[in-house]
Each structure stands twice: as C-alpha cells, then as structure tokens.
Amino acid sequence: MGNVCWPLTVEEVAKVADSFAGKFKLRNRALFIFGCCTGYRISEILSLTRGDLISEQGRIVDRVIVKARNMKRKKESRFIYLADTAKEALALWLKRQEEIGLVIDKTPAFCKEFGQRLTRGTAWRILKNAYRNAGLNTSGLATHTMRKTFAERCYDFYKRTGTLDPMRHVQKNLRHKSIDSTDKYLRFMDDGKEVVNNLGFKL
Fold first, then answer.
1. Residue ranges of the domains in the chain?
2. Which residues lie below 8 Å from residue 177, measured CB to CB, with a gap of 6+?
3. What pLDDT is recorded for position 193?
4. Please, is 43 exposed, middle or buried when counting C-beta atoms within 10 Å of its C-beta (0-12, 13-18, 19+)?
5. Where are any strands of DSSP class E within the chain?
6. Of 39, 27, 26, which is closest to residue 199 (Cα–Cα)?
7. What b/e string do you get for 90-104 counting C-beta neighbours within 10 Å, with b at 16 or more?
8. Residue 127: predicted pLDDT
C-alpha cells in the first residue's frame, strides 16, 4: 500500500466495479465506487459511519463530510458532493446493512459482518482481489489508486471545460500544502456539484 500507484482508466474502473462477488459484494463495490467518486483517502473513507451518509429523512446525503479529526492533518474537515453513481452504490449496501440489523448511526459505513470497522489492511485485500479479478496487474495499484483515479477524472473534466489554472484547483481541493504534491498527482478534484457527475464513469 505504498505511495507510488497509478490511477485507473474509465474502462478499468468499470471492470473492477463488475468484478466484486460473494457475501460482501455490495459493500466492497460501494467502497470502491465511493472512493473513486470522492477522492477521499482510505483512512477517511473507513472513518465514516451510517450517520454520516444517511440524512434525517432516510436518504443518502448530497454531500459527505469527513470530520477534521479523521483527516490526514486533523486540522480541518472536508466535504465532497456525492455523484449519483456513488449514491446508488451506497444505497444498495446501506439497505443490506439494515437487513442484517446494522442500523445504528454510529455503525461504521464500511463494516464487517457484526459491525466492526474494516481495517486498511482488509480494505487493501478487498481491492487487490478485485483488481486481479478484473484482469489488472496489481503492481502499481493500491488503496490510494481510488483517490488518484478520481483526481485524474476531475483534471480531465476541467481541462475539457477550459477551467483556468487547474493545478491550483488540484492543490486546493486535494488539500495539498504544496503545489509540488499536486504536480506528482498530475490530477485534481473539486468540491462542486457539476464535476462529480461528469467523471466519465459508466458502470
């Protein structure tokens, strides 16, 4: 799970999304799609609870907030609007959670059978198996691949639409302190509503 990893193409994202199987297919697929559609780090994703994803009206929230204490530098929270694709995947998994009795708001959004939070190591094993099942070489892939994939899709979107100074958007929205960190990604993301539904994923 090192820092050096590659983003997935739109076609590869679709292959991976279709590769999940077994008892926790809905959970694992939701984890992957959510990661690709939000760009959150795996630790940030795993910090989320059902209460973070479901509104008081019982619907999937329009935007997800990761609390400051769960962010990398623990200084400020961050939100991202949810793409319809992510909402659909989450809805299927969270409904399944209800069916097996995991209905408390504090229940980890991505949990094991009896409500225990997934670990980063388990998440990596899930993704690694999915990458392999999709016929991908796992060398150069990691949990961070989801974040880089989202960043690349957003970067492509802003380039297509003529956004000025896209790298600055990268730096701001990935919460990078240095533009050098952003340059290593060659990508970026945005907190706006329009971009998340124009990432090119067709699942």
1. 10-144
2. none
3. 60
4. middle
5. 63-66, 78-81
6. 39
7. bbebbebbeeeebee
8. 98
Q: Could you report how far apart the first and last alpha carbons of the chain are, in Å?
A: 26
pLDDT at 182: 65
Q: Are 120 and 1 in contact (CB under 8 A)?
A: yes
Do 49 and 102 touch, CB atoms closer than 8 A?
no
Domain made up of 10-144: CATH architecture? Orthogonal Bundle (1.10)
Residues in CB range of 14: below 8 A, 6 or more apart? 201, 202, 203
d(CA 114, CA 135): 31
Global pTM value: 0.85
Residue 140 is classified by DSSP as T
- Rounded to the nearest 5 degrees, what angle is found at the Cα of 64, between the Cα atoms of 121 and 115? 45
Spell out, as residue ranges, where the chain has pLDDT lower than 70. 1-3, 73, 166, 169-176, 182-195
Query: What pLDDT score does 137 carry?
Result: 93
Cα R_g (the chain), whole angstroms: 16
Q: How many CB atoms lie within 10 A of CB 55?
A: 10
Alpha-carbon distance of 147 to 82, in angstroms, equals 14
Q: Cα(46)–Cα(123) distance, rounded to whole angstroms?
A: 9
